[in-house]
Amino acid sequence: MEETGNIRLEVNISPDKLEARVTLIVPDEGRGGPILITEQDVRDALRAKNVTHGILDSVISELVGNPAKFANVPVTVACGTPPVPGIDGKIEYPFLTLLHDDKRPKELDDGRVDYYSITNIPNVAKGQLLAAKTPPTPGTPGTAVTGEPIAPKAGREVMIKPGKNVVMNQERTLLYAAIDGQVSFTENDKVNVFPVFEVNGDVDFRVGNIDFVGTVVIRGNVPTGFRIKASGDIRVLGSVEGAELEAGGSIEIRSGIVAQDKGHVVAGCNVKTSYIQNANVTAGNQVLVSQSIMFSQVRAGKQIICNGAKGFIIGGVLQAGEKIAARVIGNASATPTVLEVGVKPELRQELSTITKELQNVYENLRKTDQGLGVLSQLLQVAGELPPEKRTMQIKLTNTRLVLEKEVKKLEARKKEIEQELEGDVPAAVEVYNLMYPGIKLVFGKLVRFIKQEFSRTRFIVLEGEITTSTLI
């Protein structure tokens, strides 16, 4: 702070150190007279606060030339150079282009169309590149007005997650298929290649239940009572009734599900279908429906999206970690419909459990190292250990190896969960056309009953309340 005649120069630096402001503080008794200030006065005041970078000479000249204009008004006289954040790492999946191959159904000789013959199966060959990782960039440092470097936010690291029948290069930046088969994403975005089992028609008693370590393709329908289990994906080109479908990867049902409250459809990744009626559906990631969800129990780790030409949800209970969206929700009869969205409780619970387990393992590791340290001191003093102490040393050494392996496993899983939770977005319910009364919205512990119609509305939680905003 500098005194100059009848005024005082005050310099303030912003918390992020990217801006310095000068205020000419003029006392009441000095406002009637001339304000005398020189460029040197301003520069001395800046120097006293160590402001050396990004000084705006033109602003200082204007300040000195017409000080009365700036009396008691803060003016920016120096701007730092903001850091440039790093670019997040990314993973590209070249095989996904196979999903966009020609999906037109086969035309038979008599002119009819065979919809069950659509061969939209992304097969890959042994040795084919499946994933390529681009590492994150560290970013570019900035410079504070005081000349200090400002560290940038580094880009976020990403990891290729290998599953079954795949191999990685030594740098763990490229992933290749180890066998011929179909690519499938399973839990935590692991990439797998599975062999394919096909049924050329409906599942019936000649086919029976299916339990296959790979991907299953049904080129017909799956009637009530049958069970299909696959470690990869399940693709049904017809419809599914009250059957049991369980896939480690995704489930795609070309027609839809009419289950009559029987059976279930469970996928580790996504469930994609045209409609869901009186069914029980669970997906680790997304449930994607083009037409309707009616009177069903539907759960998704992230999103439930029903946004086709009709895209309506009526009745039942829908639960999603991040978002539920549809064109129309409810009906004019106010049919009770429950929509629940919010954080991923199972992930947060797992993170809490892993943190406690790590604390226990760290403590056991500390005790093991303590024991090994004592034995090492005995060895240095005596030159050798008695048999019982030698046996103890071997046991402790083996215990340490087991504990180290457990620590690596727990820390890796903890990092995965933290990265997934870091990307959490505020939970939302979105209706693109119309929401009718009779809907119960649940955001964690918050509940709101819809008693009027809403159109083109997003529901989110702000300041502890379920609030609305208009969708553009």
Textual characterization of the structure:
Keywords: Coiled coil. Residues 10-188 form the Flagellar Assembly Protein A N-terminal region domain. This is FapA family protein. The protein is of the alpha/beta class and 472 residues long. Among the domains are: 2-79, no CATH class; 90-140 and 153-183, no CATH class; 345-422. Helices cover 20% and strands 36% of the residues. The chain contains four helices and 36 strands. It has a 21-stranded mixed beta sheet that branches. A four-stranded antiparallel beta sheet has the order 1-2-3-4. A four-stranded antiparallel beta sheet has the order 5-9-13-12, with no helix packed on it. The chain is extended. Residues 1-5, 99-103 and 113-121 have low confidence and may be disordered.
How far is the N terminus from the C terminus?
Answer: 50 Å
Number of helices: 4
Considering DSSP H and I runs of 4 or more, what fraction of the residues is helical? 10-25%
**What number is the mean pLDDT?**
86
Structural class: alpha/beta
Q: Largest sheet, if any?
A: 21 strands, mixed
> In what range is the share of β-strand residues?
35-45%
What's the Cα radius of gyration?
32 Å
Shape: extended
Number of strands: 36
Ranges where pLDDT stays below 50 over 5 or more residues in a row are: 1-5, 99-103, 113-121
